[in-house]
Amino acid sequence: MTTCSLLLLLTVAAVVSAVVSPAAAEPYLCPWRRVAHVDDPFIQKLGKWAVDQQAAPLRFDKVEAAKAQGVGECTSITRNYELIIDAANRVGPGDDKYRAVVYVINRIQPQKLVSFERPA
């Protein structure tokens, strides 16, 4: 192989390796969709888990509304869940609503709490 051909081959290899692979790119996020059966035990357990992750003295009551967003492929079981949770303060009066976003890889593996806040 001549020096020129070798240099061309190395240049092409460098360019190909510099291209970002699809696996390294940000995952595709599908549109948010309302969860039809918010009383599903999985959704309720997810809401209770989100409340239990808080340092605040909150008592979980129920998930009142939920939306799901596929991550990767829209048919994927990897999802973000946005939950509107009814929870009571254990030390003071009154119930409050909280918005939690939970990332779930599948229904078996542990989930990640992305955010937990009072809705504006």
TrEMBL record:
The keyword Transport does not apply. InterPro entries: Cystatin, Cystatin_sf. It comes from the Eukaryota. The keyword Transport does not apply. Residues 1-18 form the signal peptide. Keywords: Signal. This is Cysteine proteinase inhibitor.
